[in-house]
Amino acid sequence: MYQIDLNCDLGESFGNYRCGLDEEVIPYISSANVACGFHASDPSVMAKTAALARKYGVNVGAHPGFPDLMGFGRRNMMVSREEAKTMVQYQIGALSAFCRVQGIPMTHVKPHGALYNMAGKDASLAEAICTGILEVDSRLILLGQGGSEMERAAAAAGLTFAREVFADRAYEEDGTLVPRTKPGAVIADEEEAVRRVLSMVKHGKTEAVSGKEIPVKADSICVHGDGEKALAFVKKIRMELEREGIQIVPLGSTAG
User: Is residue 108 within 8 Å of residue 138, measured between CB atoms?
Assistant: First the structure.
């Protein structure tokens, strides 16, 4: 039987600004990546999101990013290894407090936006992130792109790594995501998203933006919570996965 985790980036509202449909989306997923105040979120939002996760039995992971509220953490920043490590630790620590309040464990860490993309190619940055996680809790799973520097760094550090694929993003031939600045980077058609997900889960392959078929390995499927069609996507994807007999399980059951 095929098994897959279905994750979504949540808790990305801030003060009076609402981002995403967290309460509507969370019943359909198995793992939530919760923003920790650097690229989005605030203490009240983190507390509310952790409570929602407990209510629906969803795994919680930290979603640390660069300190860039205005750019939503999607702008590259040049930081030292020490800065990267401690930024990740600070954000894990912030969210862990709210997990303790709810009596739920933190299961994983998924870097956000530019931090995620840069660490996928920069071995030093990936190693700093892994060191940051390892020093806090070696049981935490690192969620990232398969075949990336993050996967290699996790293996070297002895961290469990879960390979993530994206339902709503296009791929380059080298397996990296098409930059959001390019046309076609974000997939808006539900049927296309479902078709790609099923191909990635069942056949280990997807179509790059060039049209070339490329191999992928999937432990978890991501739907971005800030997308305007996030709810429609996650409902449709879950329904079709279950129709195909694919079991949706929390992160940790598929990793490694």
Answer: no
User: Measured between alpha carbons, how far is 219 from 217 in angstroms, rounded to an integer?
Assistant: 7
Paired tokens of 235: 């409902």
State the residue range of the domain holding 143.
Answer: 3-248
C-alpha distances (whole Å) from 167 to each of 96, 136, 156, 203, 225 are: 28, 31, 28, 15, 12
In a domain, 221, yes or no: yes
Token pair recorded at residue 25: 């989306």
CATH value at residue 102? 3.20.20.370
What pTM was estimated for this model as a whole? 0.93
Contact 31, 220 (CB under 8 A): yes
151 domain residue, yes or no? yes
Residues 61-87: pLDDT tens digits?
A: 999 999 999 999 999 999 999 999 999
